[in-house]
Design a protein that fits this description.
Distance between the termini of chain A: 31 Å
Strand content of chain A: 35-45%
Number of helices of chain B: 2
Shape of chain A: globular
CATH architecture of chain B: Alpha-Beta Complex
Bound molecules: zinc ion
Shape of chain B: globular
Number of strands of chain B: 8
Helix content of chain B: 10-25%
Largest sheet of chain A: 4 strands, antiparallel
Strand order of the largest sheet of chain B: 1-2-3-6-7
Oligomer: heterodimer
Number of domains of chain B: 1
CATH superfamily of chain B: Peptide deformylase
CATH architecture of the largest domain in chain A: 2-Layer Sandwich
Structural class of chain B: alpha+beta
CATH class of chain B: Alpha Beta
Radius of gyration of chain A: 20 Å
Helix content of chain A: 25-40%
Order of helices and strands of chain B: HEEEEEEEHE
CATH superfamily of the largest domain in chain A: ACT domain
């Protein structure tokens, strides 16, 4: 499908960002596809699929004034939309433990080797500044089944002391 | 027998409450057969409710013997005027719906339920369901009250430390 763009906006969080950005797109005749928008630390990040028949330059011109007045960095890429094409996850994995450098790379590296294809990942830092804990939550597809993932998580638990759990995701359709 | 057309959201009939069945006769049994055939024709459906084909009657079918991965189940259950009479535990799980194509989401349900109903011969039946089958029963009964799983979505963020409350002795 043509006319689709991935729009990224990042900047310091403040009230009203989502309403103003999406308002500008609506007034400019654009349509939204899948989006994620969230506060990360003191920042706000927006990633959204936008359909704009007038093309990339028009889209940038439309968003520039809002981005500048909200002090957001703006980035636009042409993309292949592929809406209505949701791969179904078959496993949900949660890992948490005392925060330390490399924890995400180590966990995701071991899982990738065991055939895990991440569809969705969220991670957060909780605890206290002195004793932070890292929480990692993923959904994905187990290309080689759940057993290799279970043993990869078992190894991670043993070798790094993190807590790791896997639950199968089986969509009930009815 | 016939495969009936399945209504999809935003058809307003999916948001209406269904009426109790007053008489279980041959016409109703024929409808149950059509409903079942319609469920089998859908991709991977393990349950269906009468309002999904536009009949606002308290009739649902659940058959988890057809699930993609084997789960504990009672086979084919025809549920007429069903009521859930017991709930136990809480679980988050993924659901989709024949009436909501191309979307699945996480929903909190009781982990185990007892459902009491009449079957298509008018006989009282009761099933103690757990896990996937309990989820299917609750999803179908929601349809009879005009509720979709979309009305019960929880964000992915809210099931981080999901735990299985309902456990049988000896279960891992
Ligand atoms: Zn449904």
């Amino acid at each position: 499908m043509k006319d689709w763009f991935m729009v990224t906006l990042v900047g310091r969080d403040r009230p009203g960002i989502v309403a103003r950005v999406t308002g500008a797109l609506f007034e400019g005749g654009c349509m939204l596809g899948e989006t994620t928008m969230m506060r990360l630390g003191g920042n706000f990040s927006i990633m959204m699929m936008v359909r704009c028949g007038a093309g990339r330059r028009a889209l940038e011109t439309m968003l520039r004034p809002e981005a500048e007045s909200l002090d957001l960095r703006l980035h636009v890429d042409a993309i292949d939309a592929r809406l209505h094409d949701h791969p179904q996850p078959d496993a949900r994995i949660t890992v948490y433990g005392a925060d330390r450098p490399g924890i995400v790379a180590q966990v995701t590296g071991a899982l990738a080797e065991a055939g895990f294809n991440i569809l969705d990942l969220e991670s957060d830092v909780g605890g206290t500044p002195e004793a932070p804990i890292y929480v990692l939550h993923m959904e994905g597809q187990a290309k080689e089944g759940l057993e290799p993932l279970r043993s990869a998580l078992e190894t991670l638990r043993r070798e790094t002391g993190v807590e790791a759990s896997l639950s199968p995701v089986e969509a009930m359709i009815g | 027998m016939a495969v009936l057309p399945i209504l999809t959201y935003p058809d307003p009939r999916l948001k209406q409450e269904s009426e109790p069945v007053s008489e279980i006769d041959d016409a109703l049994r024929a409808f149950v057969r059509d409903l079942e055939e319609t469920m089998h024709a859908g991709p991977g459906g393990v349950g269906i409710a009468a309002p999904q084909v536009g009949r606002l009657l308290r009739v649902a079918i659940v058959d988890c013997s057809r699930s993609r991965k084997p789960v504990s189940n009672h086979g084919r259950m025809v549920l007429i005027n069903p009521e859930i009479t017991r709930w136990e535990g809480v679980a988050v799980g993924r659901e989709g719906c024949l009436s909501v194509p191309d979307y699945t989401g996480n929903v909190i349900r009781a982990e185990a339920v007892r459902v009491e109903a009449l079957n298509e011969h008018g006989e009282p039946v009761a099933y103690d369901c757990e896990g996937f089958e309990a989820r299917a029963v609750q999803h179908e009964l929601d349809h009879l009250d005009g509720l979709l799983f979309l009305d019960r979505l929880v964000s992915r963020r809210h099931d981080l430390f999901r735990r299985k409350v309902h456990k049988k002795p000896g279960e891992r």
